[in-house]
Amino acid sequence: MRVYYVYILKCNDDSYYTGITNNVEKRFAEHQTGMLKDAYTYKRRPLTLEFFQVFNDVNQAIYFEKKIKKWTRAKKEALIKGEFNMLQVLSECRNATHFKYKN
């Protein structure tokens, strides 16, 4: 059975990069050595592997990767720290025109 990893790297410029692979150690080494000069991480090395999650279904992994890429920095950091209870709080809209009424 194949496994797939969704991972988050922290770049030298303090940004985050999210990706998917079937070999997290190999892929991290490729990012770290700058294998692809046009890659987002190339000029942002050195990198640290902050998070990864294992999936048995490639479609679930792709879905999760795309979802994380849309998250705010705060939400990514909550995931990295394992603060799962904060994910819902950080997902709630704080926009003045879109809020929940409390009775």
What does this structure look like?
This protein has 103 residues and is of the alpha+beta class. The chain folds into two domains: 4-70, GIY-YIG endonuclease (3-Layer(aba) Sandwich), CATH 3.40.1440; 72-103, no CATH class. Helices cover 38% and strands 20% of the residues. A three-stranded antiparallel beta sheet has the order 2-1-3, sandwiched between helices. The mean pLDDT is 91.
Q: What characteristics describe this protein?
A:
three-stranded antiparallel sheet, GIY-YIG endonuclease, 2 domains, 3 strands, 4 helices, alpha+beta, single chain, 103 residues, 38% helix
* DSSP E strands, number: 3
How much is the average pLDDT? 91
What is the CATH topology of the largest domain? GIY-YIG endonuclease
Which descriptor suits the 3D outline?
Answer: globular
Domains (count): 2
Uncertain runs are none
Q: Pairing-aware structural class of the strands and helices? A: alpha+beta
**What's the architecture of the largest domain in CATH terms?**
3-Layer(aba) Sandwich
Instruction: Describe the main β-sheet briefly.
Output: 3 strands, antiparallel
Helix content: 25-40%
First-last Cα distance: 51 Å
Percent strand equals 15-25%
The side-by-side strand order for the widest beta sheet comes to: 2-1-3
Helix count from the secondary structure assignment: 4
Helix/strand order: EEHEHHH
- State Rg: 16 Å
What would you give as the CATH superfamily of the largest domain? GIY-YIG endonuclease
The CATH class name of the largest domain reads Alpha Beta
